[in-house]
TrEMBL record:
<dbReference type="GO" id="GO:0006412">
    <property type="term" value="P:translation"/>
</dbReference>
<protein>
    <recommendedName>
        <fullName>Large ribosomal subunit protein bL28</fullName>
    </recommendedName>
</protein>
<dbReference type="Pfam" id="PF00830">
    <property type="entry name" value="Ribosomal_L28"/>
</dbReference>
<dbReference type="InterPro" id="IPR034704">
    <property type="entry name" value="Ribosomal_bL28/bL31-like_sf"/>
</dbReference>
<dbReference type="InterPro" id="IPR037147">
    <property type="entry name" value="Ribosomal_bL28_sf"/>
</dbReference>
<dbReference type="InterPro" id="IPR026569">
    <property type="entry name" value="Ribosomal_bL28"/>
</dbReference>
<keyword id="KW-0689">Ribosomal protein</keyword>
<dbReference type="GO" id="GO:1990904">
    <property type="term" value="C:ribonucleoprotein complex"/>
</dbReference>
<feature type="region of interest" description="Disordered">
    <location>
        <begin position="1"/>
        <end position="26"/>
    </location>
</feature>
<dbReference type="InterPro" id="IPR050096">
    <property type="entry name" value="Bacterial_rp_bL28"/>
</dbReference>
<dbReference type="GO" id="GO:0003735">
    <property type="term" value="F:structural constituent of ribosome"/>
</dbReference>
<keyword id="KW-0687">Ribonucleoprotein</keyword>
<dbReference type="InterPro" id="IPR001383">
    <property type="entry name" value="Ribosomal_bL28_bact-type"/>
</dbReference>
<feature type="compositionally biased region" description="Basic residues">
    <location>
        <begin position="17"/>
        <end position="26"/>
    </location>
</feature>
<dbReference type="GO" id="GO:0005840">
    <property type="term" value="C:ribosome"/>
</dbReference>
<comment type="similarity">
    <text>Belongs to the bacterial ribosomal protein bL28 family.</text>
</comment>
Length: 63
């Protein structure tokens, strides 16, 4: 399973990890995915949604 939000399509970002001496090595920031049960077309389904998207959906009363 890939770490991608089912609603917004957000995926992991990459960049550099910096040590105290500023040496760079690659690292990855994963998306904060949560499993949520949502009613889609009258049937409950479990989808993986990012926490930011979940907050927005709750604000809009979509969930």
């Amino acid at each position: 399973m890939s770490r991608v939000c089912a609603v917004s399509g957000k995926g992991p970002l990459s960049g550099n990890k910096r040590s105290h001496s500023m040496r760079a090595s690659r690292r990855k920031w994963n998306v904060n995915l949560q499993k949520v049960r949502v009613v889609v077309d009258g049937k409950p389904q479990t989808i993986r949604v990012s926490a930011r998207t979940l907050k927005t959906l709750k604000k809009q009363n979509a969930i």
